[in-house]
Design a protein that fits this description.
Radius of gyration: 18 Å
Number of domains: 2
Number of helices: 7
Largest sheet: 11 strands, mixed
Mean pLDDT: 95
Number of strands: 11
Structural class: alpha+beta
Shape: globular
Distance between the termini: 40 Å
Length: 272
């Protein structure tokens, strides 16, 4: 049974991390009102443009009111976005009724992420040869981590570069790495210090280089960088189903799921 404290921690880290990703971008929108939060990058990097709740919904009527309010606010941002809802915030814990309500409102399931926690990372299971890990510290490495994530999530490269490659994201609280085979960028990850916790994001391996241990290697390097700089052990992430086995092998355990939903056309900007 998931620990309620860890559930609250994963929910808080989700909100705080998305704010962290967006707050340094020139056209960002961060708004909290009426029990909802809208967090936009101002770019077309859709996965980090989220509308969500600020607290659990009391019942389905409360959820419907807040979903409608979030959608009205989010559509003013002029960028594609997703509605995000932690399963633990579904009224009465009834995820099925929540999905049904969202479907009735025109929202379609897009992707889901599993909140995961580790107090400390386990030792590496194997050595990885032929991979050079470069710190995200200049225009080339920022572009590489942006492009790898854009390709993975089917986002136009300019939109990814406008958000993930922006210098405002890579301050002293950011510890990113790009893995190269020769001169080809093949994997990436980043660890950010978010409210006193090492938060991991932007973990991607190019499809033709998967199942070689690259994601684990680049992620471990980022975590080590953050640990050396801050001394913080605890770490949180939100994993795709593809990445979850890798993280479990590193010592993370699953806590709660966040579902992302594509809004109906009336809540999207024309250019989306």
């Amino acid at each position: 049974m998931p620990d309620p404290i860890e559930i609250a921690e994963c929910n808080a880290q989700f909100l705080a991390a998305w704010i962290h990703f967006n707050r340094g971008l020139p056209s960002h929108q961060i708004e909290h009102t009426d029990g909802v939060s809208v967090i936009h990058s101002g770019t077309g990097m859709v996965l980090i443009n989220a509308a969500t709740l600020s607290s659990p919904a009391s019942d389905l009527a409360d959820l419907e009111r807040r979903v409608r309010r979030a959608a009205e606010l989010a559509k003013t941002g002029g960028v594609p976005w997703l509605f995000a809802l932690p399963d633990s915030w579904a009224p009465g814990g009834d995820a099925g009724a929540t999905v049904g309500l969202l479907a009735d409102l025109g929202f379609q399931p897009s992707v889901s992420l599993m909140g995961m926690v580790a107090e400390a990372i386990t030792p590496p299971r194997r050595e990885i040869a032929g991979l050079t890990l470069r710190r995200v510290a200049d225009a080339e490495t920022r572009a590489a981590i942006a492009d790898l994530n854009s390709i993975a999530y089917n986002v136009p490269l300019p939109a990814g570069r406008a958000s993930v490659a922006h210098e405002g994201l890579w301050d002293d609280s950011a510890f990113g790495r790009v893995g190269y085979v020769g001169e080809e960028p093949v994997c990436c990850a980043a660890t950010f210090l978010v409210e006193g916790i090492r938060y991991v994001g932007f973990v991607v391996t190019a499809p033709e280089h998967r199942r070689k241990g690259y994601a684990e290697a680049v992620m471990r390097c980022c975590l080590d960088d953050a640990l050396s700089a801050t001394g913080v052990q605890r770490t949180v992430l939100h994993a795709t189903d593809m990445g979850r086995p890798v993280y479990e092998g590193m010592g993370y355990h699953a806590v709660m799921r966040v579902g992302f939903y594509t809004p109906p056309p009336q809540y999207l900007p024309p250019q989306a």
